Amino acid sequence: MRNKIRIFGVPMDMGQKRRGVDMGPSAIRYAGLQEKLESLGYAVCDSGNVEVSQQEEVLDSYNDSVRVHYLPQVAQICRAAYDRIHQQLQPDEIGVFLGGDHSISIGTVSAIHQRGKIGVLWVDAHADFNTPETSPSGNIHGMVLAVLLGDGPHELTVIGGSQPKLKPCQVAMVGVRDVDPHERLRLLDSGINVHTIRTVDEHGMSSVAHNILAQFADCDYLHVSLDLDSCEPQIAPGVGTPVDGGLSYREAHLLMEILADSGKVGSVDVVEINPILDVANRTAIIAAELLASLLGKRIL
Length: 300
Known about the structure:
By secondary structure, the protein is α/β, with parallel strands linked by helices.
């Protein structure tokens, strides 16, 4: 069992349109993340933040031919995150990656996919499976999973190597409830195991979580990519793209607890927390609590 944790912050906000998500890493740290993890017996090392330019300092690349906002900048930041994680995260350490918008996962997953046979659980209200051709917005945070499966702008798909970082069988999704029309068709054809919020409603989170673990039974390592908009907006209001009807407080914790019981969790992204839109740092506090559950906090 890994008993060391290394934290990396990636305060990027150029993958989406709402300012403030770049303050997410600070908000989660302020919520007492390190203290919560140390109380579980982990040795915690915080490696600080990847350097990120501000939107005011750069020009947006979007035009009729590119159809992607801030592509060079997002690619550069994801490469920097990849390099930092690849160089500093040790085999006996759990990686905790604090966003920033969900675009950071292009860098984080590209860095950790080389650690063994991995399964990736995407906990999100959205599928993040658009391409520049299908995206209504051109925002990269809605294309991340497609990029990791090798479909997207070349500048992003080559980070960490030219081959796709994941196969559909290595991905499961839970909490999905807001999918764009063309994205829906792509997702239905993808072969990805998608547990929509209706699946959770019908079968319960315990059944869904054990189904996910069964899918990943032959994986060495589980990476959880947790977007806080997966949760019901009343409990996690500080997100840029809230969608009603999300995971309840206990559903989210139960998912994390069952994943922790597997002993396979080796890394986690926590993304899309926007303190400007939050109430008394509530969303960051819930994120820190969910991380504690994912990494072994038990009721008894």
